Amino acid sequence: MFEMVRSGGYLMIPIILCSIVAAAICVERFWTLRASQVTPKNLLAQVWIWLRDNQLDNKRLRDLRAGSALGEVLAAGLGNSRRGRDVMKEAIEEAASHAVHELERYLNTLGTVAAIAPLLGLLGTVIGMIQVFASIQLEGTGNAAALAGGISEALITTAAGLTVAIPSLFFHRFFQRRVDELVVNMEQEALKLVDVLNSDRLAESQSRSEASQAVGE
User: Fold this and answer.
1) DSSP characters for 66-104?
2) DSSP category for residue 105
3) What's the pLDDT tens digit per position in 158-205?
4) Burial track 44-61 (b if 16+ CB lie within 10 A, e otherwise)
5) Averaged pLDDT, 33-46
6) Which of 80, 122, 145, 159 has its CB surrounded by the most CB atoms within 10 Å?
7) For residue 135, what are the CA distances in angstroms to 121, 123, 153, 190?
């Protein structure tokens, strides 16, 4: 393995660094983008229980905001629930945009690695072929060792670059798709919160209006 890396030339160093960065990002994103971490399954039901029992105080609201991305979005809506539906939705959208930004962290870097790695391999190919033609110009085609060294460098760097780029591109698309699914789930949960809270307030206001009319009669 070490001989293969050494045969690839100095361009193997940035390719190896790209592979380390890509592997680290993949491990970190696998851990961070877990559904149980981003959109806990029973979180909205727990919020309903707190609202029903009048237990949603500032401490629980802070814990909700810090617990998960979905909790941050729901807390933004709950914190502005008394200001009307439009203000509540704006607060949720702002919190959701911040949550999406956090979910997409490092994905641009992973995509950059997927784009750069094959270019580094191609550069190694070009440098290796230059060495081959320079060797042919100086020594002719009789020095097989010199020719083999240049061709080897060209092939090894190309293979190494593609080996890093292909899984990096795959996981970049995979994580992007997972982020999209998590965002859709958060939007659905937030809309449920908005609809239920505003429907409850509408029913409450109507009942108060009917009660006041009855008193007036």
Assistant:
1) HH-HHHHHHHHHHHTGGG-HHHHHHHHHHHHHHHHHHHT
2) T
3) 889 999 999 999 999 999 999 999 988 888 888 888 777 766 554 444
4) beebeeebeeeebeeeeb
5) 87
6) 80
7) 21, 18, 14, 67
* Count of positions (residues) in the chain: 217
With a CB cutoff of 8 Å and minimum separation 6, the contacts of 25 are: 106, 107, 109, 110, 113
Tell me what pLDDT residue 211 has: 41
For range 77-88, the mean pLDDT: 77
Q: Which candidate, 14, 56, 17, 16, places its Cα nearest to that of 193?
A: 56
The pTM assigned to this predicted structure is 0.78
Q: How far apart are CA 149 and CA 131, in angstroms?
A: 9
Whether 111 and 141 have beta carbons less than 8 Å apart is answered as no
Q: Where are the domains of the chain?
A: 2-216
Structure tokens that stand for 8 in this block: 């690839």
Query: Cα(47)–Cα(200) distance, rounded to whole angstroms?
Result: 15
CB neighbours (10 Å) of residue 120?
22
- Nearest of 60, 168, 203 to residue 211 by alpha carbon: 203
Tokens of 108: 């641009």
Which residue has tokens 């760097």?
157
Q: How many CB atoms lie within 10 A of CB 203?
A: 10
pLDDT cut 90: percent of the chain above it: 27
